[in-house]
Amino acid sequence: MEPTTPLPFGQPKDESVQHLRSLAAAKVEHTSLRGVAREIGMSPTGLKKFLLGTAPYAPTLRRLRKWYVNHAAVPASELEYPDAEAALAVLTHDLPGGPRRETANCVLDCLGRGYDATGRARPRWVDELRRELAG
User: How many domains does the chain have?
Assistant: First the structure.
């Protein structure tokens, strides 16, 4: 595929951004806007605008995903597409288009084989992310 083809974790689904937004809002409710902004690596004003619905710029989205993986992840049994998408984006963030896509596919292949080897059903998000990568 062409390196200019957007990756699913480069151009997030609205539900993924909303998921990050709701988790950040919940964290702000339990702590403070300034504290969460500091954890994410953005200004309190920027976080406030994001929480009010502003679409994040690419660097802000990377910070939000990294923060999510480090500070806001859910238990494994509750992992869903936005969670897996954020984790995969963090793991491959500094690779260019083609190698990033290949690496993401490889990670998803390994995860799928791991679930198959244990006899557990693959989570729905494994196939969803693979379809997104296939374009």
Answer: 1
